[in-house]
Design goal:
Blueprint (H helix, E strand, L loop, with lengths): L1 H18 L54 H13 L1 H21 L5 E4 L2 E6 L12 E13 L6 H67 L5 H35 L29 H4 L1 H22 L4 E12 L11 E10 L7 H66 L5 H35 L13
Antiparallel strand pairs: 1-3, 2-3, 3-4, 4-5
């Protein structure tokens, strides 16, 4: 009899192990997106120099992880290292990943049985009705039980929960890398904008010196009776206006320095960067192929892992339609005295199984629809992220191409403006033209030089943005294997 009961229980466990291979999650496949063979700006369609973005060797066609070293700037190297350590947004993202990682461990615990020990001692009174008289109706009972329960994963609910949690953890890890990359590129952008602002401040300082010399010239000519007091007043106005404009430039310079301090996790008053004489020039940045963005962009990886997790959640929802089987067993010792508690005759045990089947639950069908809708939404978000990535790369490739040409054109405009000013000053000294022509030429030169510096700054920030759009040297192989 006992053998027959044991065989039934073993049969039930065997069936549970067989059905444990079932899973109701749809077979996962990477959502399809249309990937062009090459970037539009890299194909030569809109680029007279078709080789401008092609690498000399295959190994060159990659942005490295410590991408900022290509700028050969020790100050930038130090600041970027501090971002990875002290930026508070990165700290928050890292803690969020830790939580997601532990959720995987919690889900994996459902694979195993639950064991509980519940030792106890109780005092109870024995029934004395019916005229019976007992010498000692009060009895002490000592218990030392060990209970175990296990729900075999018949329909893949636990496995799909683990898969979903693992996908979410990987998405969180990719979000962490995306936060890190955003902070790094934001710092580099602020850093080179600060360089550009320093160069602009130097331009205005030099211009103030030049205008001061022009004012002295008009004052000398006025004293000799060659010039008028009106020209002196014009020179004074121009000098004072330029001084005020140069003073105003220091506001943005300070704000950029403050922003850099916050990015490296420091109070603004604790960071002072040196004055930069000129802005750096951008390095060559190989964009590679559009298909590589699917592996190199952490935001795309995060979106793809979210699709994976949503797909597994469908299997969790489907499993709710099927019965849950719980296997339970308990064993231990029970005795009225501690002396006989561990005797063989004091042993007690039980073993059994229960099954529960939802018969009616109006909430389950809508819930399944909800999970399907969540999956479709995550697919759409993934595809939109990929499209936005393509757009970002194309935008900055065309920006750099056009800026290169525009900078060359603007440099010629600066040279022409300088020639115009030299001629205006020469003719003014000869008394041919009034000082108003000199002021016009000086204003034109200053404006053109400002524009040229602005273009150089824009070229640097576009280079930084392109590096971010290319993933900053990150790769999906760096994702945790949860």
């Amino acid at each position: 009899m006992k053998t027959t009961r044991l065989h039934k229980i073993l049969l039930l466990v065997s069936l549970a192990a067989i059905f444990a291979g079932c899973s109701f999650a749809p077979k996962y496949s990477l959502p399809k997106v249309e990937t062009p063979a090459a970037f539009k700006e890299n194909s030569g369609t809109n680029n007279t120099d078709t080789n401008i973005w092609q690498a000399a060797r295959p190994s060159d066609d990659m942005v490295r992880s410590n991408w900022w070293v290509v700028f050969n700037d020790t100050n930038l190297d130090y600041l970027e290292q501090q971002v990875a350590i002290s930026n508070q947004n990165i700290v928050v993202a890292f803690d969020q990943y830790r939580v997601a990682h532990e959720m995987v461990r919690e889900a994996q615990a459902e694979y195993f049985p639950t064991l509980t020990g519940n030792p106890g001692v109780s005092r109870q009174r024995t029934y004395t009705g019916g005229g019976l008289t007992l010498r000692n109706p009060n009895v002490t009972v000592y218990d030392l039980p060990l209970d175990g329960t296990w729900q075999p994963d018949l329909w893949g609910k636990v496995r799909n929960t683990v898969r979903s949690s693992a996908g979410q953890a990987q998405a969180s890890a990719a979000d962490l890398e995306n936060t890190r990359l955003t902070a790094q590129t934001e710092l580099a952008s602020d850093y080179f904008q600060l360089q550009g602002q320093d160069t602009l401040i130097k331009l205005f300082d030099d211009t103030v010196v030049a205008y001061s010399n022009s004012l002295k010239l008009t004052q000398i000519l006025f004293k000799t009776g060659i010039d008028s007091d009106q020209d002196v007043a014009q020179a004074e106005t121009q000098l004072e206006t330029t001084e005020a404009q140069g003073t105003n430039l220091r506001i943005l310079r300070a704000q950029l320095e403050h922003a850099i301090a916050v990015l490296i996790g420091r109070p603004p008053e604790t960071l002072s960067l040196p004055q930069f004489p000129e802005i750096a020039r951008p390095p060559r940045i190989p964009p590679g192929l559009p298909s590589q963005l699917l592996q190199r962009r952490p935001d795309i990886a995060a979106a793809e892992r979210a699709v994976y997790a949503a797909n597994a959640e469908i299997g969790v929802a489907r499993a709710a339609f099927f019965p849950n089987v719980t296997l339970s067993a308990s064993g231990g010792f029970e005795s009225p005295t501690t002396a006989s508690l561990f005797h063989w005759g004091s042993r007690v045990w039980s073993i059994g199984a229960t099954a529960s089947q939802p018969l009616f639950n109006a909430g389950l069908p809508p819930a399944l629809i909800q999970y399907r809708a969540a999956y479709e939404s995550s697919v759409a978000q993934y595809r939109q992220t990929v499209l936005s990535a393509f757009q970002g790369v194309e935008d900055n490739l065309v920006s750099l191409r056009v800026l290169k040409t525009q900078i060359q054109q603007q440099d010629l405009a600066v040279q022409s403006s300088q020639k115009y000013l030299d001629l205006a000053i020469y003719r003014y000294k000869l008394g041919i033209d009034s000082y108003l022509n000199v002021i016009t030429a000086q204003t034109t030169l200053l404006s053109n030089r400002q524009t040229l510096l602005s273009l150089h700054t824009q070229e640097m920030t576009s280079s930084i943005q392109l590096i971010e759009d290319l993933g900053g040297g990150w790769d999906t192989s760096q994702l945790p294997k949860d």
